[in-house]
Amino acid sequence: MLTGGIRRRAVAQQVIDSGVAVAGVATALAIDPTLPGQWLDGHDAPTDPPRTRLRNKTLAAAALQSVTSRQLARLGRGKPPTTPYSPTVALLLERLVRARRRRDYVKWHTAA
Known about the structure:
mainly alpha; two-stranded parallel sheet; elongated
């Protein structure tokens, strides 16, 4: 399996033609869930990830991953995709949720 940055049909096809069994397209799928159908119909509809103003590459990548995670979670719950948050806001929300979960876990663990 090869994954990471595949957002165009031609690139995915090139990966498969090279002998790789699976081309991972989770980020592209999170941005546009209709993408596989479009690609099967022969359309090379590229997807562009949301833009971030973060200059730090590590933080920018984490912010884009947060957007992708939120989108995939929405799709997993049967909800339509949406991008109501900027990548920076999505990252901050994810950090807050993780901090709350960690606090809840510590409380549970010390009570047990």
